[in-house]
Amino acid sequence: MRKAVLVTGASSGVGLALCKRLLEEDHELHLCLACRNRSKAEAVRAALLASRPLAEVSIVQVDVSDLQSVFRASRELKQRFQRLDYVYLNAGIMPNPQLNIKALFSGLFSRKVIHMFSTAEGLLTQEDKITADGLQEVFETNVFGHFILIQELAPLLCHSDSPSQLIWTSSRNARKSNFCLEDIQHSRGQEPYSSSKYAVDLLSVAVNRNFNSRGLYSSVVCPGTMVTNMTCGILPPFVWTLLMPIIWLLRFFANAFTLTPYNGTEALVWLFHQKPESLNPLTKYLSATTGFGSNYVMTQKMDLDEDTAEKFYQSLLELEKHVRATIQKRNH
Predict the structure, then answer these.
(1) 313 part of the active site
(2) For 39-47, which contacts have Cβ atoms below 8 Å and span 24 or more sequence positions?
(3) 212: which strand partners?
(4) Triad 269, 307, 172: Cα angle to 5°
(5) What is the DSSP code string of 244-312?
(6) Beta strand residue intervals within 62-122, DSSP E
(7) pTM: predicted TM-score of the whole model, two decimal places
(8) What distance in Å separates the CA atoms of residue 88 and residue 13, rounded to the nearest whole number?
(9) What are phi and psi of 219, to 5 degrees?
(10) Nearest Cα residue to 93 out of 22, 7, 207, 169
């Protein structure tokens, strides 16, 4: 029986590279591309099938920053699938990233230069906005839209006979200092991306605590520092050109510089082969690349505690009730 894999954000970057690599690992997969843009998804599907004709590749149109779209896609998936073996929760945004030039130059001449480039800690701020659902866009896209997707797809994911696995794209930039339980959407801060990725880490831990007994397991991954559509907008092209030789050199001292989406998927593909019940729920799996270009997987204990994770999960459940009631009123 074919394994069924759902990948959000599958039409570019890490998501696209992951789809290609998964089909290299198992060319008979049923791979479902969950994308906002159907025409881009159709082009990706055609390219994947051209190289792997034995695979089954389907599309579901979903925008995780629009809850109506998430509900619609969930209904469609429940009609099509009896179960999902893997869900890669990869779609995400970092809107209008602004580089802190002062922090960049002070970091360049400090002992923390490698850490700064590896994690972007203190380097980037973003301008967030409110979605049609009345939520902060980064929070809804990176966290809450995926949370609702999981809630809706629970019948396809919870099977005691054989476990299903959630695999989240998190980040080394997930900082505890940027997250606050009293402001889970980070509406009062300037680093919503970092906050959202820390929220993803918390949510993964809470999912394990609440769903392992029902056969659903969750893990988080950091794909490393890459040049993708998301990161290209941070700096002008000529600055990237100047920085790339330095970044290549830094790879001999820090393994976080995976640089390409293909390299960045190393940990995501590694998890595809693991028994989820054997994994530590408090561990983050990091894609890493040596200075000579060899890929491998590292582990890192997450900087969080299970009580905070559970409180965050309860906050999401409360927000879910409120949002569902609002949508119901709107539709009537």
Answers:
(1) no
(2) 40/11, 40/12, 41/10, 41/11, 43/11, 44/10, 44/11, 44/16, 44/19
(3) none
(4) 35
(5) HHHHHHHTTT-TT--BSHHHHTHHHHHHHTS-GGGS-TTEEEEEEE-TTS-EEEEEEE-S--HHHHHHH
(6) 86-89, 98-99
(7) 0.89
(8) 14
(9) -140, 155
(10) 169
Query: E-strand spans in 113-264?
Result: 124-125, 164-169, 216-222
Tokens of 102: 């002062």
Please state, in angstroms and rounded to a whole number, the distance separating the CA atoms of residues 311 and 181: 8
| Closest to 264 (Cα-Cα) out of 170, 185, 329 | 170
Tell me the average confidence (pLDDT) per consecutive run of 10 residues in the chain, 332 residues long: 95 96 95 97 97 95 97 98 97 72 56 54 66 95 98 95 95 92 94 95 98 97 77 62 72 80 97 96 96 93 96 98 89 74
Q: Which residues of 256-265 are buried (b: 16+ CB within 10 A; e: fewer)?
A: bbbbbbbbbb
| Of 14, 23, 320, 21, residue with least CA distance to 149 | 320
Among 193, 198, 262, 285, the active-site one is 193
- Candidates 164, 253, 180, 264; CA nearest to 221 is 264
Instruction: Identify residue 168 by its one-letter amino acid code.
Output: W
| Contact in structure between 90 and 12 (CB atoms under 8 Å) | no
**In one letter, which amino acid is 300?**
Q
According to DSSP, the residues that pair with 221 across neighbouring strands are 169, 285
Token pair for 89: 């929760």
Structure tokens at 135: 């939520």
